[in-house]
Amino acid sequence: MTPNEGTLSVQDLISAFDRLTAEFAAAIGSLSTEQDMRAVQARYLGKKGKATELMKGLGRLPPADRPAVGESANRARAAIEQAVQSRLRDLAGADLAVDLERKLDVTLPGRGRRAGSLHPLTRVRLEIEQIFHGMGFEVRTGPWIETEWNNFDALNTPADHPARDMQDTFFVEGGFILRSHTSPVQIRTMLAGPPPVKIIAPGNVFRRDDDATHTPMFPQCEGLHVDRNVSFEDLKATLIVFVQQFFGPDTQIRLRPSFFPFTEPSAEVDASCFLCEGKQPARSTCRLCKGTGWLEIGGSGMVHPNVLRAVGYDKHDVTGFAFGMGLSRMAMLKYGVQDLRLFYENDLRFLCQFPTS
Amino acid sequence: MKISLNWLRELVELPAGTELEAVAQALTEQGLEVEGTEAKGRELAGVLVAEVLDIKPHPNANKLRIVRVRAGIREESVVCGASNVPPPGNRVCWAPPGARLPGGHTLDAREVRGVLSPGMICSEPEMGLCEQADGILILLPAAESGVEVAQYLGVVDDVLEVNVTPNRPDALSHLGIARELAAHFGTRLRPTDLATVSEQAGGITMDVRIDDPQACPRYTASFVSGLTVAPSPIAMRLRLQYCGIRAISNLVDVTNYVLLETGHPLHAFDFDRLSGPVVVRRARPGETMTTLDGMDRALLAEDIVITDGNGPVALAGVMGGNTSEISGTTRNVLLEAATFEPRSIRRTSRRLGLVSEASYRFERGVDANGIPFAARRAAALLAELGAGSVVAGMVDRYPRPSVPTKVKLRTAHLQRVTGVDYPVTFARKQLARLGITCEMAADGLVATVPTFRPDLAIEEDLIEEILRMGEYGKPAHKERIRSNATAQANPEAPADRARALLASAGLHEIVSWAFVPRSALAAVSGDGTQRELADGIAIQNPISSDYEVMRTSLLPGLADALKRNLARGVSDAWLFEVGRVVRRPAKPGEAPVERAHAAGLITGRRAAWLKPGEPVDFYDLKRVVEDLLRGFGLPDAQYRAPAGVSFLHPGVSALVTTGTGAELGCLGELHPAIARRLGIEPRAFHFELAIAPLAAATVSLRAEAPPRFPAVTRDVSFWSDVSLSADAQRAGFLSADEPLLRDLAVLEDFREPKYVPAGKKGMLWTMTYRAAERTLTDAEADAAHARVVKALANLHAIEIR
After folding, report:
1. Which among A201, A224, B106, B697 is placed 20 to 30 Å from B73, CA to CA?
2. Strand partners, B62
């Protein structure tokens, strides 16, 4: 319909706007993009659009009638915009529904290269360092190639003493040895400054042993705490905190008298078996503790006065405790590894089981 | 050390019902760790001591006889084939029907050549007591008829393997262990009956002189005459066997028995082969002797020798000489019980590689005051065995008497070291259990330490003894963890950081030996062209040639691990190791230089999804190294070809430096020739970086807010000479100093000969432009891009495509 100006009444104009709304809704009913809909919308509401043309008739109406027509024009504008929005919502809903029908096999593996792994001996060392760090121990390290004095003499183990048999030593050229324990780090640390000293010394050590239960190189972690009034009770307390964090909160320790040249009194440290928990009947068949209920984890004791003297500390001023453990043994216990050699075969099928943490 | 439980029970009273497990636990808790126990003689049961009543011939066989035996109230006639059946009145071992023999054999009554035999009369091998013997075992007439043979001989026994620490020479014997048990259980030692020694007056003797009292503080000689060399009785042989010593003959067995019982080594000389007098002295330079293993030994002044008029007859405490050795015809014996300087014994025994039960004890210290007891015990046993007569008058030279030492213990120190307020009376009580008497002092006590405990020299030693008797096992009285005053950086932190970065980059950590075969260093060093790699620090006493020199590089260990994995069918192997290498010091005499390296070796295929990926190449390796360096805060590392190292491919390798030129290491393809020598077939890619410069170059992390205005990208595509590296092109672009240029990256390096002019390559770069405070217009971006491209064109011949 072409509006014939001058002949249109107020009612005609109002119904023309209403028709316009219905016509627009039909015009966009088949469109599927917003761009197309906006193009059609411009033909109705744009400068030369149909609604604009109708509004030109407004000026010829009596002023009293104008507000009613203006209101219907505004209603038509709003309805047209609403129709666009509504149609867009319908379209989006349909797209979404299609999109939501996609389905993957979530059981296929993920894409890309897998993360690597940390060696079990590294993992166990990091865990031990963290536990002792929490108790205020600092990490200290020292060289592999050591002097006999640092490795033995300063540790109350003079030459020609049977205690040297406890550690069969490698000699290297130049009059040095490969350290047989990390105790030289204790000596170096104490020589470097006055007490207090509270350190742990992780690192590789070397002994001339090579069989099913010994490797010529193995990692160890020793601890040393020297200060005023450090006692055997402090040693016990430190060790119990350690085993409970490492093996579990119900773990107990057992100290047994022993001999190390560098400590007096000396003690072997056993932790209660976390597998059978020392309880029968599981204990009698426990392959971890071999029926004893206890796991040997290391040695310990009060620092021998001769060691304190060797580094220039005064035993009347300070006392101290020291302890040490083999990390391979700790890793074997922790991860249920039966064969020590696995740690040194570097077989990826074994190593892959220790993802980065 | 092997300890017989039966033997212990003879030496110490134990509370009723104390069985093996309680004994083992007591010793372990007291510091004498029982590492294992072995049940002995359980397979022999029901064999009885039987008196021979009568012997008759077998009606149907010449070599068999019918022996009537009585065991308790039982009497039977048993067929026996042995030729040594003793006359009536003697005792034999009868296995009646139902008795069990080793090997699971149970006896029954069966016919032997037409005569029913209820069981058999046994020989030693049949009862599992020894390997071989002639005829049946004849027991002493005193054996009580009807008693189980296993019980009578002490066949049923438990042997404890006790680990005695080197500070406890006193515990290297049954008596020493018995003493520990008496202290533990609060019981008494049983006295040893020495009254049976009947000494014969006026027999053989020989003078003894000690020339060096430091070398030999005490020497005693006892004399035995009229010796008849014979096997010792079964019970003694069995004990020795259970304790790991082979039985030989009565005299030797007695010396070994006394050694195991008292811990005192004895040495027997054939008296008639000594010219006398006995002189104990240090060996003289150039002196030699033949030890009883037939070896000629050159002696040094540190050795202690026993000499007679003709020179050395024994290497004191280590081994006897062949000229004075006991033989089957020995009639008269000089029995030596002495003590020697531990250090000398140890040096001699180590030097000559002669370690014996005797030297083991001498080098740990033998109590001089226990010597007469040991000598008398040996004499008593010889008399008991009827092996010979003991001559009255032991010659005893004791120039350096060993006296009990006094050790002071301050109560305050006891309390300080233990952390427990033990009263001094408690200390005294604990020490008393160990036979240590104490006098009270104003501030503590003074202990008198018996001479058999040389390990107790200072007050800390006494503290251990006080705690050892039950205090070790008590739980800690209170929580006593103290914090630390200062907290210094963990020196291992950079190495651990490298480990974490490499593992998250997809590599697996390995641990290899710190020592490698020399051949491996020869391979990686290109047979020495890379000198610092070839010249490793040597181990002077390696276990094998696989462990003969300290590693100078991590490559041999990685290559070995890769080779093993390839051999096991693992073809995708990304390995790394973080550890130390050892290099020769700059100046001879200084300690070798140890430095931490991080190294990797990768081979296999790139990750592709559900299908095999492309083989990995240099750029996969480079991404690993880049991520490692980024993780350390080093985004501006430089890569310069060639690396110029022997072990990498000359065209596929680079030296890595920091932005300021400090050398970090190298990366590249493993040199094909060296890969072949190391046994690696597929292409493998290797990097090795030093940790210290990496950690030193670390820049602390600074972050900036993300840009507020959008960026515009522009690409440029051109031909350049093949030799113009990406880094050089980048530098050319950057020479424009264009402030709007925020980033640039290579999108393509195109070298397909079909499309690319000879000697050229097609490059495609993309540049990102952005202003900090506004949105760039297209025109501004175009202008900036033109300036950047022109900067490169000004420096190098490029042809825009």
Report:
1. B106
2. none
Nearest chain B Cα distance for residue A70, angstroms: 42
Q: Give residue B194's pLDDT.
A: 76
A-B C-beta contacts closer than 8 Å: 246
Min Cα–Cα distance to chain A from B457, Å: 11
Q: Are A175 and A301 in contact (CB under 8 A)?
A: no
Nearest CA distance, A101 vs chain B (angstrom): 24
The phi, psi pair for B456, rounded to 5°, reads -100, 95
* Cα–Cα distance for residue pair A130/A138, rounded to 1 Å: 10
Q: Where are the beta strands (DSSP E) in chain A?
A: 138-139, 145-146, 171-172, 176-178, 197-206, 217-227, 253-260, 263-272, 294-303, 319-326
Q: What is the ipTM of this complex?
A: 0.74
- Residue B360 is which amino acid? Y
Angle, alpha carbons B465-B467-B472 (nearest 5°): 135
Residues in chain A with CB shorter than 8 Å from the CB of B463 are 264-265, 302
Q: What is the sign of the dihedral through the CA atoms of B232, B233, B234 and B235?
A: negative
Mean pLDDT, all residues of chain B: 91
CB atoms inside a 10 Å sphere around CB B468: 24
Domains of chain B and any CATH numbers: 2-41+157-185 (3.30.56.10), 48-153 (2.40.50.140), 199-397 (3.50.40.10), 405-468 (3.30.56.10), 493-697 (3.30.930.10), 712-800 (3.30.70.380)
Q: How far is B357 from chain A (nearest CA, A)?
A: 14
Residues B31, A346: C-beta atoms closer than 8 Å: no
Query: Least CB-CB distance to B167: which of A233, A259, A346?
Result: A259
Instruction: Enter the tokens of residue B45.
Output: 């049961």
Q: Which of B21, B364, B480 to mutate to test the interface with A (most CBs of A within 10 A)?
A: B480
pLDDT in tens, B728-777: 999 999 999 999 999 999 999 999 989 999 999 999 999 999 998 999 99
Instruction: Give me the helices (H) in B735-795, please.
Output: 778-795
Number of helices (H) and strands (E), helices first, in chain B? 21, 42
- pLDDT tens for residues A10-63? 788 888 888 888 888 888 888 888 888 888 888 888 888 888 887 777 777 788
Given B419, B512, B592, which is nearest A145 (Cβ)? B592
Q: Look-up: residue for tokens 């007569």? A: B389
Q: Are A144 and B514 inside 8 Å of each other by CB?
A: yes
CATH of A120-351, one of 3.10.290.10, 3.30.930.10, 1.10.540.10, 3.20.20.70: 3.30.930.10
**How many whole angstroms separate alpha carbon A256 and alpha carbon B270?**
46
Q: CA A1 to CA A300: how far, in whole Å? A: 106
| DSSP structure class, residue B66 | E
Are the C-beta atoms of residues B709 and B771 closer than 8 Å to each other? Answer: yes
Q: Do A237 and B481 touch (CB under 8 A)?
A: yes
Tokens in use for A25?
Answer: 């809704």
The residue extents of the domains of chain A are 10-100, 120-351
Name the more confident of B489 and B106.
B106
Question: Which of B481, B581, B601 is the best substitution to test chain A (most A C-beta atoms within 10 A)?
Answer: B481
Query: Contact A161/A261 with Cβ under 8 angstroms?
Result: yes
- pLDDT reported for residue B483: 54
As a whole number of Å, the end-to-end CA separation of chain B is 88
Of B520, B438, B419, nearest to B478 by C-alpha is: B419
In this structure, the dihedral spanned by the alpha carbons of residues A256, A258, A262 and A264, taken in order and rounded to 10 degrees, is 70
Asked whether the beta carbons of B719 and B681 are under 8 A apart, the reply is no
**Are the C-beta atoms of B465 and B434 separated by less than 8 Å?**
yes
The three-class DSSP label of residue B488 is coil
Retrieve residue A242's tokens: 């350690």
Q: Are strands B296-298 and B304-308 parallel, antiparallel or unpaired?
A: unpaired
H, E, C per residue of B286-315? CCEEEECCCCEEECCCCCEEEEECCEEEEE
